[in-house]
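Protocol step 4 of 6: structure prediction from sequence.
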Amino acid sequence: MTSKLKNSLVLTLVIIAFVACRVYDKPPSLKTPEPSPHNGVFVNGKDTLWMNGDGKTIRWHFEKALPEIGQSGRGEYVFLFGHGKYRYDAAEAFRIIDTAHNNASHEFRMNPGTATPEGFIITRDDLNYKSQKFQLVK
């Protein structure tokens, strides 16, 4: 193989890798209106999230304390795609931020397209908190 052919092959592979990475950095383009923020009490067993409908503030109580955010608290939340805020019905992650304690936070994974105004499923790698479905109760 000639060096010119090798260089072309390497350049082609670099371009393909760059393009492939950029495709997954962008959230999906949704043709539906963005749903209203979650509003109400969302429960999974003894774990509770209170969301007040502003798309930002949250209170929580987990039966077992999560090291990063404790057992109970107040703060903010955000739904994410990649590294940016995104609408919850297509988000890849959910982050709780404890604004009272130096913005300690923890990120949960989500399956895009599974969150609705009535609830959502979050997952973390912790064996004690594998996958939890929070449902609106009021």
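Step 5 (inspection) to follow. DSSP finds one helix and nine strands in the chain.
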